[in-house]
Amino acid sequence: MKTILRLVVLVAMILLVGVAHAGDTLHGAGATFPYPVYSAWAYEYNKISGVKLNYQSIGSGGGQRQITNRTVDFGASDAPLKPEKLAELKLYQFPAIIGGVVLVVNISRVKGGQLKLDPDTLCKIFLGDIKYWDDPRLAKINPALKLPHKKITVVHRSDGSGTTAIFTKYLSGVCPEWNTKVGAGKAVKWPVGIGGKGNEGVANYVKRVKNSIGYVEFAYAKQNRLAHTLLKNAAGNFVEPSLKTFKDAAATGDFDPKKDFYLWLTNAPGKNSWPIAGATFILLAKEKTDSNRKVVRFYDWAFKNGDKTAERLAYIPLPESLKKKVREYWKSAGIY
């Protein structure tokens, strides 16, 4: 009888815990870069937990602002904050997923993977120095392509963006002229081009505007069936954006929990590394212990169950060793 009573009490406790979590809604905002994978994870998590994820894909700048103002449970940013800034704002930071920023073009009769770019030509296109697709500098590295004498339309982000931060961090590292004239950041003063809001906006513009070039997270290139370019990496090889080349870039990253995982993955040295890769990060307000535990529960579930979904959407899951570091970081913060 006592055994049956204990069992009834245990079942009742499990049901009460379930009721406590069912119907919860987590509110997040920020980077458009990881939006496709967060949405997919949220859908699956809701089915097994009853917890909803309301994620506003408004750009990394917006995500940093909203968590700083404490208007959301978590912020999301592709541009990591330095430990000093996190301490000032009383925030935690950890990586959630890794992806690649790719160049996409809309040029008649040019298919994905045909056009080659190197750091110099890419830099000069976005500076406005290379104005036409048949420029001799482009023709020299693309001898097999007949590029048209059409004016290039550059498409960039109009909002504060972590994708922009990764892209301009890369350009600043490989092109001294860009570093001097424009620099790196979530928002910069673009020398040329038109602006689109979010990765979605840039992808839509490139899709519609003939002879355009833009930069987007790889999942958006795939979803919109946009033609990607090859890019010459730090090892001197023209590489294709793919799970393999993103993984090669990610393998170079030494994420340190003592520095709140602050790290950029641009221009990685590997032979086959994609040169414009980056992690995307989650930001939590230190004092919001209860909601932090709920957010951590979601990402812990995603770390255990979401890798296949991430890869299907062309993202790189965190290596197991890094997931372990993140969990230790959560434990030390008392939210795991």
**Rg for CA atoms:** 22 Å
- What structural class is derived from the secondary structure elements? alpha/beta
Mind summarizing the main beta sheet?
10 strands, mixed
* N-C termini distance: 36 Å
DSSP summary: helix tally: 14
The CATH homologous superfamily name of the largest domain equals Periplasmic binding protein-like II
The CATH C-level name of the largest domain is: Alpha Beta
Compose a concise summary of this entry:
The protein is an alpha/beta fold and 336 residues long.
Describe the structure.
This protein is an alpha/beta fold and 336 residues long. The protein folds into two domains: 23-99 and 253-264 and 277-333, 3-Layer(aba) Sandwich (D-Maltodextrin-Binding Protein, domain 2); 101-249, Periplasmic binding protein-like II (D-Maltodextrin-Binding Protein, domain 2). Helix content is 44%, strand content 20%. It is built from 14 helices and 13 strands. The strands form two sheets. Strands 1, 2, 3, 4, 6, 7, 8, 9, 12 and 13 form a ten-stranded mixed sheet that branches. The chain is elongated. The two termini are 36 Å apart. 46% of the residues are buried. The model is unreliable at 1-22 (pLDDT under 50).
